[in-house]
């Protein structure tokens, strides 16, 4: 991988392309803040700067590349319209800016795309076509319509114009935080990291670029390292769940990126939860991948001044609630205890008294008399409760055990 600190002139995107893109789109996007996080810095051992791309109008950096490409189209191409295959942030970013520029936009999505994404994309003025059960099927149909109707296809990542637009994220980061010496960037297809690495290599000083992929989708890692790990599974980071990275982006990542690290689903969940709790900002799984890398590989980043891109904030609210509750369970602040009780008056009262003594809040109580192997006069009671932390939970369990109760914590994910 990369060892040089200058942009290779043979690559399809140059620093001049990125600077021109920034001049072109700067007045039509949100110049999102780059802010230091003192709490995350203390937690990770690195100096952590966050770039809040989740504050773009469509809540993702994808607007940048889409807008740059739209503005470079000929008038004839603009009149005929553009098309893309996407069920995510690229669809909304392209639809939004095409509508602003008066360019007809068609987005092809798989039939199983959540209705909220369909409605949001339509709300930006795009014509949404549902086709096929997979992204590949939707992509194939989009290319067919491109040929039939004379649309211009705008790829989500494998296009120099898109890459140049995405690179403007790094232009702003390094202007706002010039002491950054490492960029940590999520990788799906590779458009964002390719553009940002182009800027880093032209900075005139060493800036490391580290890409981050979900363990379930290590496609770029495989391509650059000659490995053959599977790319499949239900990842929280669906925005970077790409089975095949781009041809152009693979070339650029190989030349410009220093390293790629993989992160687990648990690290992604922890990162989403921490960003909400500490920074009070909502970030989707892919957007939290950079912080997940710092949490999962602290030795790789300790002592560095790290720029982390929060590249998107489009997460289903029910999924976000689930992630937050699972994190509470892992930290011991939310627990479910299973107790064996005698089915007689006062049994539950005696348990509740201990909860009161230990100042533990009971949220819900579940009785099970029928589906159990206990004797007929026995019962299983699950009590969902809220504690201060893991030590407080352990203290409660010890108190229940001392009082003669058979108790165990129900395992969390």
Automatic annotation (TrEMBL):
InterPro entries: ACT-like_dom_sf, ACT_dom, ACT_ThrD-II-like, Ser/Thr_Dehydratase, Thr_deHydtase_catblc, TrpB-like_PALP, TrpB-like_PALP_sf. Residues 336-413 form the ACT domain. Keywords: Lyase, Pyridoxal phosphate. GO terms for molecular function: L-serine ammonia-lyase activity; pyridoxal phosphate binding; threonine deaminase activity. It catalyses: L-serine = pyruvate + NH4(+). GO terms for biological process: isoleucine biosynthetic process; L-serine catabolic process; L-threonine catabolic process. Signal peptide: none annotated. Its cofactor is pyridoxal 5'-phosphate. PANTHER family: L-THREONINE DEHYDRATASE CATABOLIC TDCB (PTHR48078:SF6), THREONINE DEHYDRATASE, MITOCHONDRIAL-RELATED (PTHR48078). Belongs to the serine/threonine dehydratase family. This is Threonine ammonia-lyase.
